[in-house]
Amino acid sequence: MKFRLAGLALLLSACVSSQAAGPDTRAGKQIRQDTGIVARRETDTTHRPNPAPTQRAISRNPEAETRFFFSGNGRLRLAHGHFNTTLDIRYRHADGSYDEAALKKIDEFFRSRGDGRHRPMSLRLIELLSFVQERFRPGSMTLLSGYRSPEFNAELGAAGAAVAMASLHTQGLAADIHLGGIDQRKLWQRLRELKTGGVGFYKSQKFLHIDVGPPRFWEETTSRVSENLSAGNARMFVRTDFDRYGSLIGAALTLHSVTTLPLYVAADARVVNRRGSQPIRLAGTGAIRKHGTCWEVSTPEETYGLTIESVGAETVEGGDPEAEHSYLLLHTCEPRIEKTPLEVRSNPIELE
Questions:
Q1: Is there a single domain that holds both residue 261 and residue 211?
Q2: Domain boundary residue, one of 208, 227, 246
Q3: Which residues span the domain enclosing 326?
Q4: CB 130 within 8 A of CB 71
Q5: Segment 52-75 mean pLDDT
Q6: What's the whole-number average pLDDT of the chain?
Q7: Spatial strand order in the sheet of 268-272
Q8: What CA–CA distance (Å, rounded) separates 106 from 81?
């Protein structure tokens, strides 16, 4: 049985979304340009894109003050381009733990402007925006689009907006930001070099699309928004709840841009680095159920989560000599629907 994602992207910036910026899937029968950048330091059933998890993992480790590679000082200051409101909030405590009340205020600020719906925004995205703010010192940061509900996405698409389908905005993983007082093109280029995630430069609309999907970059003329690049799980990816770990046991993983069901993920996966690899065992969460030696994702859900149940003690062959950091390598199982990849690689991680 197949399901397909529906969803679309933005209004003010009608061109932004996560197609070039990331996954994109169509519904249907299948499932101010400023100057001087300042850097202080360097007709079937349709299935809509899975939004961000409804529960966030909250760091409580006093030693883990920054559990993401790209993180700021724990403070975020934004103006809203549509609601005439501002946000100035400290979301992370000095001991590295997160202020849940503050995170909920951020979720509300990032709400879908078409219908007011909101969901937990990715901690990874919040930290990345704080990183940009602290490191590059823009004179201002104005949010043009944060979370967008799949319904609002669809409305934008129906109205003729040039937007992607399986937008990362609908998963709480993306933001469109106008950064005042700096050269946005130079910032775009710098974020490309750092490989922070997806970053798109929209010169005519004067903003950057910033997301925490796989590293990639584009401009208005190269966004390929109309090509439905994520159809058939072609751009499915996985994100861990943090980047730095003392132990991987209990770490949470989320599958994103799942556009076609069913999907089968092997329970046996690996942690890969330059020296070799270690076996890990995955457990499904929510509606994901066991199917032989694999986990079956067959029901459309808001999020598709896995946890690491165990980690093998020995390092074995199968390393990646080009890897700068460790990463998780997941495998899919037969039957693989349409463009479902054989393997899915996580974001880089660091084991302390």
A1: no
A2: 227
A3: 233-351
A4: yes
A5: 68
A6: 84
A7: 237-240, 252-256, 304-311, 277-284, 268-272, 327-331, 343-345
A8: 15
Q: Are residues 203 and 99 in the same domain?
A: yes
Dist. CA 209–CA 217, nearest whole Å:
10
Q: Where do we find the tokens 């093998």?
A: 312
What is the DSSP code (8-state) at residue 316? B
Separation in Å, CA 288 to CA 76, 285, 300, 315, 341: 35, 6, 10, 29, 19
Overall domain count for the chain: 2
Encoded tokens for 208? 């950057």
Q: Give the range among 46-55, 184-193, 215-224, 297-306 with minimum mean pLDDT.
A: 46-55
Cα–Cα distance between 281 and 307 in angstroms, integer?
Answer: 9
User: Where a domain ends, among 209, 227, 245?
Assistant: 227
- pLDDT tens for each residue of 287-324: 999 999 999 999 988 889 999 999 998 888 889 999 99
94-126 per-position pLDDT tens digit: 999 999 999 999 999 999 988 999 999 999 999
Residue keyed to tokens 């909030």 = 89
Residue with tokens 């609908």: 170
Residue 205, phi then psi, degrees to nearest 5: -100, 0
Burial bucket for residue 265 (CB in 10 Å: 0-12, 13-18, 19+): buried
